[in-house]
Amino acid sequence: MGPFMIEAKRLTKAYMSGEFRVNALKGASLEVLRGEFIAVMGASGSGKSTLMNLLGCLDTPDYGQYWLDGEDVSCLSQKRLAGIRNRKIGFVFQSFNLLHRLSAVANVELPLMYAGIAPKERKRMAEMALDRVGLWDRMEHKPDELSGGQKQRVAIARSIAMNPAVILADEPTGNLDEKTGREMLDLFCDLNGQGATIVMVTHEMSIARRSNRIIRLSDGRIDDGWQEAWNYGSA
Fold first, then answer.
1. How far is CA 118 from the centre of its chain?
2. Which of 58, 79, 115, 164 is least surrounded by Cβ atoms within 10 Å, i.e. has the fewest?
3. Which residue range forms the structural domain that includes residue 187?
4. What is the number of domains present in the chain?
5. Does 185 fall in a domain?
6. pLDDT, tens digit, for every residue of 6-58?
7. Mean pLDDT lowest for which of 82-91, 93-102, 110-119, 220-229?
8. Backbone phi, then psi, for 24, in 5-degree steps?
C-alpha cells in the first residue's frame, strides 16, 4: 500500500453546454497523502465541482488516470463506481440531504443498508458514528427537531459510518452561522487527527488555513505556483 490515498494524473473533462464545449478540467494532477487534510479553493467556474465529481467517482475523466486507495478507478463501469462510492467515499454537502421522516440514526443507516449490512450491525455502526460526532443523545430525533449544526453532524456521521478511505466535503459550513461553522471545522480537524483523509472545497481562507495544504484551481488547472507559495509562506 503506497503513501497516497489519491493520485490523479492529467485529469481532463469537458461538457457540452448547448452548442458549446466547456473544458472544465485541463490536465489537473493531484496527490493526497493518507491522513492528509486538503482544502480546494478557486473562483466559480474554475473546475472545483468537476474535480470533486471525479474524485468522488461520480464521473470519469475524458483523459487521465485516477487511483483511489491504490485502485485505478479511471475507466470503471458505473456499477463498479457505485460500489467504490459506497465503500470508500464519504460525502458531506452544503445542504444536509437528510430524509425528514427518518430519525438521525435511520438517516445514518441508509448507506449501510445499501451496502447490504444486516440490520443489527448497521444500527450499531450508525450509533457509533453518531457518538463520534457528539450526537449520542439525539439519535432518535428527526431533522426538524435538530439545529443546523446538529443536522450537519448527522450528515458527517452518515459519511463516516462505513469508515471510508476518504471524506469529500463540498462547502460543508456554507449553510451554517459562523459559530456553528467553526464547530463543524473543529470536528473535521478531530476526524483528521484520528486518521481520516479529507478533501474539502471552500471559498473561505479562514477555513482553508485549518487544513494541512491548500490547492487552488484556476481555469481548469491546478495552480502549482500558488500552492508552492502558500506552503512556503506557512512553513
1. 26
2. 79
3. 36-60+78-234
4. 1
5. yes
6. 999 999 999 988 888 989 999 999 999 999 999 999 998 899 999 999 999 99
7. 220-229
8. -75, -40
